[in-house]
Amino acid sequence: MLSPLLQNLIQALRVLPGVGPKSAQRMAFYLLQRNVDGGKQLSEVLADALENIGQCQQCHTLTEADLCGICSNPRRDQSVLCVVGSPADLLAIEQSGSYQGLYFQLTGHLSPIDGIGPEEIGIDALMELVARKPVEEVILANNPTVEGEATAYYIANLLAEQSIKLTRIAHGIPMGGELEYVDGGTLTHAFNGRQQFK
Length: 198
Ligand SMILES: [Zn+2]
What we know:
It comes from Pseudohongiella nitratireducens. By secondary structure, this protein is of the alpha/beta class.
């Protein structure tokens, strides 16, 4: 029989995605029996992060400062704004090293069925930022899912009236991939987005 405190710990660990009862148990036993110091450090860092990390006032990505490192960097190209759906997507683009402009991070994608509308994901704030900054190009880098596409179309509609270049990242064959293993939807995108061979 588990003690009440141990039961609480196991239950609390299950807040993490992909952690079921067995994994939570294993984590709790590991921390208590084999890595008490690591556990203490985890609890301190976790409390600190949850207390102090919020949204960047400009791009809405996670940061403990008013403005994140990208928004406050004067060397970033202020005329290009890339719209992403999550901090993980922003990080992936950033790590590719291929983009030097600014970002705007939506909180997920539109999903009317779940009651998630434009305001909930930050489209109002995006429009306000576009109006305030000397943005010449908006790059839509929403995921190529049904919700991601719907979100991209919604933003494109709002920006259609403005003299801003609107682009969508290309979707297609992964580098090193083989055509025969690529699904039909991706192949269609790849064909529609074909470019002059240089
Ligand atoms: Zn920012």
